[in-house]
Structures are given as C-alpha cells and as structure tokens.
Amino acid sequence: MYLLMTIPMTDRIALDRHRARATVDGMFLHRAAADEAQDRLDMVNKSFTNPAIVTGFAPFWQELYPDATVVGDTDTLDLVPQAHDLVLHILGLHWANDPVGQLIQCRRALKPDGLFIAVSLGGDTLQEMRRCLGEAEIAVTGGLSPRIAPMPELRELGGLLQRGGFALPVADTATLTAKYRDIWHLMHDLRAMGETNALDARLRRPSQRAIFTQAQNLYAQHFAAEGDRINASFELQVLTGWAPDASQPKPLRPGSASQRLADALSTAERPLRD
User: Fold this and answer.
1) pLDDT tens, residue by residue, 62-105
2) Phi/psi at 108 (nearest 5 deg)?
3) Residue 180, beta-bridge partner list
4) How far apart (Å, rounded) are the C-alpha atoms in residues 213 and 136?
5) Beta-sheet strands, E only, within the chain
6) pLDDT value of residue 245
7) How confident is the model at residue 170, as a pLDDT?
8) Can you list the alpha helix ranges (DSSP code H) found in 51-182?
9) Do the beta carbons of residue 73 and residue 55 sit within 8 Å?
10) DSSP string, 207-242
C-alpha cells in the first residue's frame, strides 16, 4: 500500500506572518479590487442583503462593508451553507492550495441565484520582476528557486468556475502598472502589501545581494519607465458566477429554433463544401 502525500503550494504560517505586517499604504491593490467588485455589482439589477467576504485582510474589508460577514481565506472557509446572497473572494485565490475547493465552498455558501465575485492576481502580475529575478539568479548561482506564486491565465478561469459549480460564468481582466525607483523599492512595497514570498518551496536562506543587483540592471534595461523608474504590472482577474437556480436563463435545445439564421440575416443559405 502506498501513501499519497500532497505538498501544499503555500506556507500558511509564512503567509499569515507577511500579511500581519502589511500597512495601510500597501492596500492600493485592495482599493482597486473594491472598485472592480463594485463595477460588477452596479451592473446587476438586484439588491443583496446578506453578503460575505473571503479575504486575508479582514479590517480593510470590514470597514468597507460593515454589514458583511468577513472570513479568512483559509483552506476551510468559515461560511454557513446557503446563508448568503453575495460572496466576494478578494485577492486570495493566487495563494490558495486548492482554488477549485475555494470556489466550491463559496458556491455552497450561496443561496440559489446568489452572486459570486472573485478578484485575484493573474498570470501577468510581476511578470517583469519574475523574468529579471529568474535570469539574474541563473546567472549568479546557476540555479533557480521559486520566488513568485504561480498564477492562472485568463483562459483557465472560466473552466475553474464551471468546476466550482457556478452558472453563467464570466472572467475578465484589468492590468495596473505601477512605477518604482528600483527593484528594492518594489520589494518594499510588496512587503507593505503582505505579498512577499510565502511559497512552501521557497529558498529558506537569504539570497545573495548580487542576484538583486543583477536583477535591477536587467530591470532598468528592459522595463524602464519615464524618469529613471521601472514598471511593475499587476493583473486583476475578475470572476463572476451565480449559484444555479431554475429562474436563470438556459440555452435552447439543439434543433428547437423556430427561425432559420439565414432568414434573420436576410442572406442566402449555401451548403458547405465537402
């Protein structure tokens, strides 16, 4: 008999420690996430009376939504099944050891026809830093260690929502570009966000300063901004889906159309060639 052991991607103890030292100035991504979530809510002709928010930054979101139930984005969510008509999952999926499990738990917490909105960091986040640090570490040490959490591409997200059991899934994205003096300024800001390296497989000893010096040289060479600054990308991926309900629109059965497409378009219908 063999025992299958799953190694987690995220070291939760390290992640909680990093988040605990986040500052008010580091919450600019959360303010952007709040704007994205509100944009989606403004598009929905429905009022919500019992919202829940899943986040690693409870004080920030509790202040924005004082009437909401706010829970941590731990592996097991502290949500009551079918208790909420709105669930927001904010900037935590990229650290989740089981993102599909997070979506399933959020869907179970929704009443029928309840709305789910997630805002998460996507694959283009810190792509400049990822490239420069990778090239620098290989050049200096001859190896490569995990430094930035893997993040999904937009094309993968619709499938994740479907696997989570949501109806009418939609995924879209917005990329923010911030400017920094240098790579050390960027790393200081990531610390203020609570977003420094919490990967379980991360290097457990201090990195050589030569790696960051080389990375800064590459950064300035390839990703320079105006005024001797460097660019850093943050991709916000926004997922929306609904808890299934009989009142929701459904696609027609194949062959049930009452009018030909050619007639609707006022065009001649021609057979396809073999």
Assistant:
1) 999 999 999 999 999 999 999 999 999 999 999 999 999 999 99
2) -65, -25
3) 230
4) 8
5) 51-55, 69-71, 84-90, 110-121, 167-180, 224-225, 229-242
6) 80
7) 93
8) 58-64, 99-109, 127-141, 154-163
9) yes
10) PPHHHHHHHHHHHHHHSEETTTEEEEEEEEEEEEEE
